[in-house]
Amino acid sequence: MPASVPAPVSAVPAPVSPVSASVPAPDTTPERIVIVGGSSGMGLALAESALAGGADVTIVGRSPERLAEAERQLGGGDRLRAVAADITSEPDTERLFKTVGETVGAIDHVVLTAADATGAYQPITSFDLEAGRRLVDSKLFGAVLLAKYAAPHLTSGGSITFTSGIAAYRPAPGGSMVAAVNGALASLTYALALELAPIRVNALSPGWVDTPIWDTIAGDGKQARLDAMAQRLPVGRIGTPHDIAEALLALMHNRFITATVLHADGGHRLV
Question: Which fold has domain 29-270?
Answer without folding.
Answer: Rossmann fold (3.40.50)
